[in-house]
Automatic annotation (TrEMBL):
Biased composition (Basic residues): 621-640
Keywords recorded for this protein, A-Z: ANK repeat
Chain positions of ANK repeats: 95-127, 144-176, 177-209
Top-level taxon in the UniProt lineage: Eukaryota
SMART domains per the UniProt record, alphabetical: ANK (SM00248)
Pfam families noted in UniProt: Ank_2
Protein name in the entry: Uncharacterized protein
Residue ranges, annotated region (Disordered): 606-645
Amino acid sequence: MVLHRCQFLFVSVTSAMDAPKTDESPALDPAVDEGDIIEAKAELPPRIDVLYQLHATEADQAAGHALLQHCRDGSVESVKQLVREGAPVCFVTTSGWTPLAVASFNGHLELVQYLLSIGASGYYKEQQQAPSSPSSQGNKKCNLQNTPLHWACYKGYPQVVAALVAFGFSVDDADSSGNRALHLACSNGNFSVLHIVLAHTTDFAAKNMYGNTPLDMTTDIVTRKLLKKLQTQSTCETCKELFSRTRRPTLCHQCHAINCDIDPCTTSVEVPWSADDSAVHSIRYCRTCIQFLTLVEMELEAVLAAKTSHISESLVKIHELELEVRAAAIPTAISTEDATSVISQVEPVAKDVQVKALIQALGQLDSDVADIEALKTAISDAQEKSANAWLIKRASESYKQLTAHTALVNEIKRLLVERPIKVRSSIDFLRKSWRDAKAEHVSPILVEAAQRVIVMAESEVTLYGYYMLSARIDVGSKVYLKDMTKLANAISTVEDKGVNETLLRNARVLRDKLFAEMAMEDALVNFEAQNDGSFAFIDGTRSSTLLEALNHRNHVVTMAVETATKMEDSTPISQTMMDQAKELLIKLKKDIKDEQKVKAWHVNDAAESEVRSTKTNAASSRRRKLRRRPRKARRGKRKPRDKDKYVDRDNCILITSHHTLIGFAHETISSEE
């Protein structure tokens, strides 16, 4: 029933909110830049004179209603722009609303502070200076007017209430129904607003026009008990002195004990409105609560410092190893002693070794959750005692960081338990913890180190997959070249990522075995004779003669056998291919010898043909010379020519030369064998 009596106070809100909106802005010339127009407008001083809607021109009414709308929306920049353009700051609607009242009603603190700074409270100062009317109490005069403080108390905006009280608005002013700030604070039930009002008033039993006290309008049980205690208690609980004008009663913010406002009975403490707000306000604590509060804050500071220091110390080694990992891939600078000295370069330390050392150190980090819960307990105690909000916020952020830190370390340890890592989905939990740690601003040292673990795990899973894919290949062949190439590329990619040593070693052995078998397979393939008389191999090599082709094939097979023989200790290749290669080498040696003999006989025949041709040509030349010789006149009977003699001589020479060449050919063949 009490609330029903007060509802008529806020009927005017609807009429003010439903006021007609006007948007009468002059048309802009499209040829003129908008920035030039803004610069051309003169900035007028704020119009702080009170302007009632009934007395305002249409332009002022439009500007006033626009100002009210922006105050309702909380647009500070728009309000400032309208004020610079000459909008009436103290514009009063027919229902009594002003820009300051609208901003207070909607809880826009920044806008309220701006309006107060430019003099928007002039209307209410004018009302305070006006002749007062008899109050409901009979002997006291008051002005019944709804103020921004009344609206802020009714809506429950403690920061706005504190700003208005600090500016000079009185909590003892009555609204149009005779309600004071305490009446409205009790009807709202906001305890922070109630504390502010109680700290600035001593009249806890004031009545409104309907005879209701703040206690009558209270809806909260705790507030009702508190008001009853304030009305009945007359002495300080600490010093036992009577309350007076110089010793006013005050409420402890923590235990709600009623003490006087004189130190050390109560102590005023500056605290922020919230953890995210830089503004502070004063609240009072009794002697006992301030001691407990100080102790709780000291304990929280100590626990927070201890946990933070422990985490920082544990990451020192990780940071050192991370620097070593970065430096491992950087070669040492080249130095020259003189112009004739040999340039030497020191080989860098293998990055893979440093990454493995870093991962091992990560697995040894402390991840005890009990230490973090000790900080959580200290935070809970501080919150219970209403400790400094900034300290609680800092501790809560540290708690979240430590929780994310511990979760990330635990995921790293879990992932490193069983190596090699075979399932890619097992990395998802670590990746999620890494994202959470990054969002909570965990130490960048741990975040970067965890990222290396994720890269290592991804590389290990990839290598394991290609290794298992290639392990199904019985004998390396060009048919499986695609899978073999993937395995080789995976090995070269993950060699410096710190993957499992056993997996990496087995993958290398399998790679060498498969490629050796493929090379053996190519070596066993015979060459092909071409139409031009040459011989072509499978790798594109060509030989002009058969003997050259046999020698090249013998060299290729020999190299393949030597490579396979070196691998017998680790992973021997197919025994069938080895036997075929050895048999082929024996056959190739025999074929090479036979081809050499054939080549020698061809050389012999060519030499014989050349000798016969030479002798035949010589005999023919001699006979031609004899025919051309002139006949001499003989006195006696001519002696007959002995033709058989010349023939026998020529035949003897021919036969002798033939036997000489045959003997030379036999000597050549014997030397080659």
